[in-house]
Amino acid sequence: MAKIIEVNKSTSRSKLDEELTKLPKKKEPINLDKYFGKINFGIDGLDYQLKTRDEWR
């Protein structure tokens, strides 16, 4: 969920810095390499793409 910080000419730099420090810190990225190749879809990806694209013709 996004937080809206209203800034206008009367907003001081210290007030802005205070609001920015209240924002949540970024999370560490998840390493998805451990999941690579674990799901068997039962069909080759290229074959599936060619089949679905041929349906449009």
Count of extended strands: 0
What general form does the structure show?
A: elongated
Task: Decide which structural class fits the backbone.
Answer: mainly alpha
Distance between the termini: 41 Å
Helix content: 25-40%
Distinctive features:
mainly alpha; 33% helix; 57 residues; 2 helices
Description:
With 57 residues, this protein is mainly alpha-helical. Helices cover 33% and strands 0% of the residues. The chain has 2 helices and no strands. The model has no long low-confidence stretch (mean pLDDT 86).
Quick synopsis:
The protein is mainly alpha-helical and 57 residues long. The chain contains two helices and no strands. The chain is elongated.
Write the layout of secondary structure elements.
Layout: H1 13-21, H2 45-54
